[in-house]
Design a protein that fits this description.
Helix content is 0%, strand content 58%. It is built from no helices and 7 strands. Strands 2, 3, 4, 6 and 7 form a 5-stranded antiparallel β-sheet that branches. The protein has a two-stranded antiparallel ribbon with strand order 1-5. Strand 2 and strand 3 form a beta hairpin.
Length: 71
Amino acid sequence: TLVAKFIPNGDNVTVSFKYKTKESTEYTNNTLPTKFSGKDSVKVTLDLADLPLNTEYDFWIEVVNKAGKAT
């Protein structure tokens, strides 16, 4: 399970979890179906399944609002 916290700081904010193996140049993108708003911290999670054991991953979230994008 991936877990992240962010502050929407606006309305209609989208959040995507992105991850890839250390060796890969391509990443998997999972955009959450919920749009977020407000000025309070929000905790989001993404359950992952069927990932190979003993494999290192890079992961991050991307938050997009009307002001732009943050990772």
